[in-house]
Amino acid sequence: MDKERIARAVREILLAVGEDPDREGLQETPERVAKMYAEVFDGLNRDPKVHTEKTFAESASEFVLVKDIPFNSTCEHHLLPVIGQAHVAYIPNGGQVIGLSKLARIVEDYALRPQLQERLTNQVADILTNELGALGVFVVIEAEHMCMTIRGIKKPGSKTVTYASRGIYEDPTKRQEVLNMIRL
């Protein structure tokens, strides 16, 4: 990530909005913003597939669900924060499971990049389907988008909910089973 280039761009933005980037309170702002962007876009430097490489053989044949995984992302349309939680369920194929923390890491790796919630939801579902060969995957993401909260329509507290289903979770009855567990 080119932090110097980001800092120069932030300085230009400050000038463009009529601020003095040399005044005391703003002197270090371009560098702080550059450092922040390196952090919030760190997912661009990560390959989420790494979290699916190590599996464990278990006699698991029912779904595994990790719910309420907190995440933050950045709306690619406005470069404003998206803050939410993900619920990730999968049915292992042949008893092959990954560590529970790996589900949260996959969400984080995809979230830490300029993103759309719809894409994020599908990326998490697709990696579990494609890399683990999961028999079923169901991902629900709920998030508040600051682009809807602090600008435009200005509706704080509104949440966007997206879901992706793969495999046996394309069956509404199976999907309802996981939704019931998410609501507990």
From TrEMBL:
UniProt keyword Nucleotidyltransferase present: no
Any single GO CC term annotated in Swiss-Prot or TrEMBL for this entry: cytoplasm
Pfam families for this protein: GTP_cyclohydroI
Keyword tags: GTP-binding, Hydrolase, Metal-binding, Nucleotide-binding, One-carbon metabolism, Zinc
Molecular-function annotations in GO: GTP binding; GTP cyclohydrolase I activity; zinc ion binding
Signal peptide, first to last residue: none
Entries under PANTHER family matching the protein: GTP CYCLOHYDROLASE 1, GTP CYCLOHYDROLASE I
Subunit-structure text: Homopolymer.
Protein name: GTP cyclohydrolase 1
Source taxonomy: Bacteria, Bacillati, Bacillota, Bacilli, Lactobacillales
